[in-house]
């Protein structure tokens, strides 16, 4: 068990390092000259030289990479060239919003997706099952940003129940929560459709197994058999998908924040692309990729916790 | 304990069970034998109200004084575990792989009898003891995949016995086990039935196992009971041609290494929908009469408590 | 069950084929020139002359949607084609050599999953400026690990088949076996995956163009039409509906087609789609 965990953790750290190399290579090395990336092609050679000296861009590539990683590991992503403040400060200011959106989106996804999937499996072959699967099939094809626009059209433009976008700040918790309802719904609806599908097919497969018959023969209620016997055994594929969905929801916040004009990390990325703020974008991309990698790592660990049979076997 | 009258189970137009009559008194041990596809497992499931959704059932069933005829699923649930319990063929598959076996056995105690956690735990250890599980405290915390086949089946028996049922239905409980383990499990079932005054329905394709376990035997073919009676009577003087064929197909005990070619019943069990309207065995029967395929033979006494359903019985042979 | 399978296939084809036909037609004819501005006739309601009305610049919406379908299909085709071929080659390589080559390729594929198309597009946009070709590269990139996995998994099974073993016994080289025997035998799962990834690519292109990381003006694109319509939501909400419907039809169509093809070719082949 400990050996497995150790190996997984080592793999995880190696992946993180590889991710940082890729990001650095694509954004810093491939374009040729970061000074041009930041200042634009029409900048003068003098200005570029000055910037290179200021940011230490004249050093060898590997040294710049090590310097960047070394500081990044300590939470220092350099200074934003556009905002003239530490990138870390920009991130920590906006992180709560993005994190709340992602957490809310994930919670709704898991609760709605698993519930609908289990209901569909329990009512297999009925109208309810069919309706849930239709919702699921549609949900998979609907782009989240278009769904957002539809939600805004309906609930903000038409019914005027909720704000069409923007964020009032955390000083007004109720208003803040209200402004996150539509973004969360847009983010979670599509993902819960995917999860409902996977939950249903996984549960249907488990339902055919003998121990479910044993549980029924023990006189347990249908609901209890579903919840305590079928669901835990159906969990492995569900957790796999949930892990992939963490990635989808976290990167989904980038899109959704731009649809709803929410001042989170996703907005920051796009502002920074427009401002050619290289270090800020670089930090954010690494951050998002690290979240994706961490989600996958946690899923790997979760398998062992879910299924005692894997303890001895996993290598 | 159980009184079943004219039980018929249909899947569309095909009859999986036809006109089954069955009575079982407290402590009685009934063996049901037949090939796969004979309907013996279907009969076990119908006594639990656990037939597949697609199945339609008719006939009367009384279980321990409660009329279960046409009962709703909720009424069946109320008697499962408490009046009738069932164990199955493949003990590894029949146990939830993600649960410690102790927790699995605790569940009905907590759910149905409202035991506290401690009381349920104590009771589980007692049940493990009773079913011959060595070192119950350690086994309590183990997962199914960590136990041996025999231990798993004992756990399943503990689970079935948890709520002190009046009837235990054992569907091929020893088929998946090694021969010596299987013997111990059958002996355990007999002992438990005797000690608890519990009726036992022992379903098996293995005549030897049934002979060792049961007092009475019912031979099934094509969804019907074709012959029934005390074990020794049926085995020593089988009256139905199918029973005779089954007995001949069995290798004689102690026949030594010189095993002759076994006379087997020609053909295989036909599919449900291809069964003859009359005697189910017609088509494979060696002594078939012209009207066998179209007329259903009634069950007739052939000895003390011994009946068989064959047109040959009573007719000139 | 069989009927159900066929439904996916036919429904998918019924959605996809007309869309391809319309895209092909729009290459030679659209009701109006999409670059033709007619500001005097902006926000015109649907009428016989403009089936779906006109947009904020007086352009014919139906013509724009038709032209945009070319963009979507081309991007999906090029991106899945590039990423897919590279991925399949890597998968075949991994399967043919096994050992550390296989481990290395699969580890790299795992690594590829750390970068959703959006993150990759963001990196490219920062480094080289936003453009449709960068969007294509980003979508192509995420296809590499997907196809590497599918190809390697399918190829590993084929390597154990008798005719391949016979070929090995006859002294045929790995390269020869791979192209003559392995590749033709993994074509079915590859085509199925490609159809499904086509749907994913169309969705990704729309999202990237919506965010300004894909098609640039004046190239018509469903995603970009949506981002323009969003600013006009109070004036002309219907402009935000049509492009979305087009995206759904395309994504649903290719998704169903892929599911249908998979069910027909091999019902056991289950690739998780998220």
Automatic annotation (TrEMBL), chain A:
Membrane-crossing residue ranges in chain numbering: 12-30, 99-122, 134-159, 179-198, 234-261, 281-306
Keyword Transmembrane helix included in the entry's annotation: yes
Segments forming domain ABC transmembrane type-1: 95-299
CDD domains for this protein: TM_PBP2
InterPro entries registered for this protein in UniProt: BPD_transp_1_N, MetI-like, MetI-like_sf
GO molecular function: dipeptide transmembrane transporter activity
Principal subcellular localization: membrane
Compartments, as annotated in UniProt: Cell membrane
Family annotation (Pfam families): BPD_transp_1 (PF00528), BPD_transp_1_N (PF19300)
One cellular component (GO) term of this entry: plasma membrane
Sequence similarity: Belongs to the binding-protein-dependent transport system permease family.
Protein name: ABC transporter permease
Record keywords, A-Z: Cell membrane, Membrane, Transmembrane, Transmembrane helix, Transport
Membrane topology of the entry: Multi-pass membrane protein
Domain of life, source organism: Bacteria
TrEMBL record, chain B:
Subcellular location as annotated: Cell inner membrane
Gene Ontology CC: one annotated term: plasma membrane
Record carries keyword Thylakoid: no
Membrane topology: Peripheral membrane protein
PROSITE patterns the UniProt entry points to: ABC_TRANSPORTER_1, ABC_TRANSPORTER_2
Chain coiled-coil ranges: none
Transport as UniProt keyword: yes
Every ABC transporter domain range: 2-247
GO molecular function, one term: ATP binding
Keywords per UniProt: ATP-binding, Cell membrane, Membrane, Nucleotide-binding, Transport
Chief localization: membrane
Alphabetized InterPro entries for the sequence: AAA+_ATPase, ABC_Ni/Peptide_Import, ABC_transporter-like_ATP-bd, ABC_transporter-like_CS, Oligopep_ABC_C, P-loop_NTPase
A GO biological process held by the record: transmembrane transport
Similarity-based family: Belongs to the ABC transporter superfamily.
NCBIfam families: oligo_HPY
Protein name: ABC transporter ATP-binding protein
Organism: Rhodalgimonas zhirmunskyi
UniProtKB/TrEMBL annotation, chain C:
Record membrane topology: Multi-pass membrane protein
Keywords per UniProt: Cell membrane, Membrane, Transmembrane, Transmembrane helix, Transport
Record-linked PROSITE patterns: ABC_TM1 (PS50928)
GO BP terms: transmembrane transport
Gene3D superfamilies for this protein: MetI-like (1.10.3720.10)
InterPro entries per record: BP-dependent_transpt_permease, MetI-like, MetI-like_sf
Keyword Transcription attached: no
Superkingdom of this protein's organism: Bacteria
Cellular component terms (Gene Ontology): plasma membrane
UniProt keyword Plastid present: no
CDD domains given in the database record: TM_PBP2 (cd06261)
Subcellular location: Cell membrane
Family of this protein: Belongs to the binding-protein-dependent transport system permease family.
Name of this protein: ABC transporter permease
């Amino acid at each position: 068990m400990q050996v497995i965990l150790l190996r997984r953790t080592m793999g995880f750290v190696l992946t993180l390092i590889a991710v940082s190399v890729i990001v650095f290579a694509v954004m810093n090395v491939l374009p040729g000259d970061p000074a041009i990336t930041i200042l634009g092609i029409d900048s003068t050679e003098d200005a570029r030289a000055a910037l290179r000296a200021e940011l230490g861009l004249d050093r060898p590539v590997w040294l710049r990479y090590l310097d960047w990683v070394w500081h990044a590991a300590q939470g220092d992503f350099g200074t934003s060239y556009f905002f003239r403040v530490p990138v870390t400060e920009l991130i920590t200011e906006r992180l709560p919003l993005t994190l709340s959106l992602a957490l809310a989106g994930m919670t709704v996804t898991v609760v709605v997706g698993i519930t609908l999937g289990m209901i569909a499996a329990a009512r297999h072959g009925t109208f309810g099952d069919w309706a849930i699967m239709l919702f699921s099939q549609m949900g998979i094809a609907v782009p989240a940003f278009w769904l957002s626009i539809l939600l805004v059209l309906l609930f903000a433009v038409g019914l005027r129940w909720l704000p069409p976008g923007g964020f009032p700040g955390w000083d007004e918790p109720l208003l803040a929560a209200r402004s996150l309802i539509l973004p969360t719904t847009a983010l979670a609806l599509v993902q819960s459709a995917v999860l409902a599908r996977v939950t249903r097919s996984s549960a249907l497969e488990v339902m055919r197994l003998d121990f479910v018959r044993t549980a029924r023969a023990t006189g347990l209620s249908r609901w209890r058999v579903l919840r305590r016997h079928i669901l835990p055994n159906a969990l492995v594929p569900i957790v796999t998908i949930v892990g992939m969905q963490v990635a989808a929801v976290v990167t989904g916040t980038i899109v959704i924040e731009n649809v709803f004009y929410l001042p989170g990390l996703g907005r920051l990325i796009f502002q920074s692309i427009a401002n050619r703020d290289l270090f800020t974008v670089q930090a954010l991309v690494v951050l998002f990729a690290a979240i994706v990698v961490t989600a996958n790592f946690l899923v790997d660990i979760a398998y062992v916790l879910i299924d005692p049979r894997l303890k001895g076997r996993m290598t | 304990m159980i009184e079943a009258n004219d039980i018929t189970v249909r899947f569309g137009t095909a009859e999986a069970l036809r006109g089954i009559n069955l009575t079982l008194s407290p402590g009685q041990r009934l063996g049901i034998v037949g090939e796969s596809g004979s309907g013996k497992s279907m009969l076990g499931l119908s006594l639990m109200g656990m037939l597949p959704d697609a199945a339609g059932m008719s006939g009367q069933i009384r279980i321990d004084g409660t009329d279960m005829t046409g009962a709703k699923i909720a009424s069946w649930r109320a008697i499962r575990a408490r009046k009738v319990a069932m164990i199955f063929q493949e003990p590894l598959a029949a146990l939830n792989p993600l649960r410690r076996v102790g927790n699995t056995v605790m569940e009905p105690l907590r759910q149905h009898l409202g035991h506290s956690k401690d009381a349920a735990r104590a009771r589980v250890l007692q049940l493990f003891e009773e079913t011959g599980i060595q070192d119950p405290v350690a086994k309590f915390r183990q997962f199914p995949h960590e136990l041996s086949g025999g231990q798993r089946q004992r756990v399943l028996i503990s689970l079935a016995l948890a709520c002190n049922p009046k009837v235990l239905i054992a569907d091929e409980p020893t088929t998946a086990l090694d021969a010596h383990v299987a013997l111990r499990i059958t002996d355990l079932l007999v002992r438990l039935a005797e000690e608890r005054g519990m009726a036992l329905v022992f379903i098996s394709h293995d005549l030897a196992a049934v002979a060792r376990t049961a007092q009475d035997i019912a031979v099934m073919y094509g969804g019907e009971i074709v012959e029934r009676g005390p074990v020794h009577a049926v085995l020593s003087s089988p009256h139905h041609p199918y029973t005779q064929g089954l007995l001949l197909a069995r290798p004689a005990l102690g026949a030594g290494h010189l095993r002759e070619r076994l006379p087997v019943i020609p053909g295989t069990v036909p599919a449900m929908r291809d069964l003859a309207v009359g005697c189910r065995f017609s088509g494979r029967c060696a002594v078939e009469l012209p009207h066998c395929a179209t007329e259903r033979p009634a069950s007739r006494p052939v000895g003390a408590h011994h009946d068989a359903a064959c047109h040959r019985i009573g007719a000139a042979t | 069950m069989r009927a159900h399978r066929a439904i996916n296939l036919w429904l998918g084809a019924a959605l996809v084929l007309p869309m391809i036909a319309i895209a092909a037609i729009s290459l030679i004819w659209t009701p109006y020139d999409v670059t033709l501005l007619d500001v005097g006739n902006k926000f015109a309601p649907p009428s016989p002359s403009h089936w779906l009305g006109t947009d904020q610049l007086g352009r014919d919406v139906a013509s724009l949607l038709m032209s945009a379908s070319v963009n979507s299909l081309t991007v999906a085709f090029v991106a899945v084609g590039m990423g897919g071929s590279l991925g399949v080659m890597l998968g075949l390589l991994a399967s043919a050599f096994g050992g550390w080559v296989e481990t290395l390729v699969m580890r790299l594929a795992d690594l590829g999953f750390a970068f959703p198309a959006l993150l990759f597009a963001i990196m490219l946009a920062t480094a080289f400026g936003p453009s449709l070709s960068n969007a294509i590269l980003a979508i192509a990139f995420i296809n590499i690990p997907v196809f590497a996995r599918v190809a390697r998994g399918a190829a590993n099974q084929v390597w154990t088949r008798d005719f391949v073993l016979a070929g090995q016994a006859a002294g045929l080289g790995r390269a020869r076996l791979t192209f003559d025997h392995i590749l033709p035998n993994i074509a079915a799962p590859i085509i199925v995956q490609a159809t499904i990834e086509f749907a994913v690519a169309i969705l990704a292109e729309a999202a990237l163009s919506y965010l300004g990381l894909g098609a640039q003006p004046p190239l018509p694109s469903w995603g970009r039409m949506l981002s323009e319509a969003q600013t006009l939501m109070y004036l002309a909400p219907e402009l935000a509906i049509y492009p979305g419907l087009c995206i759904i039809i395309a994504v649903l169509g290719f998704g169903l087609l892929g599911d249908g093809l998979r069910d027909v070719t091999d019902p056991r082949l289950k690739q998780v789609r998220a």
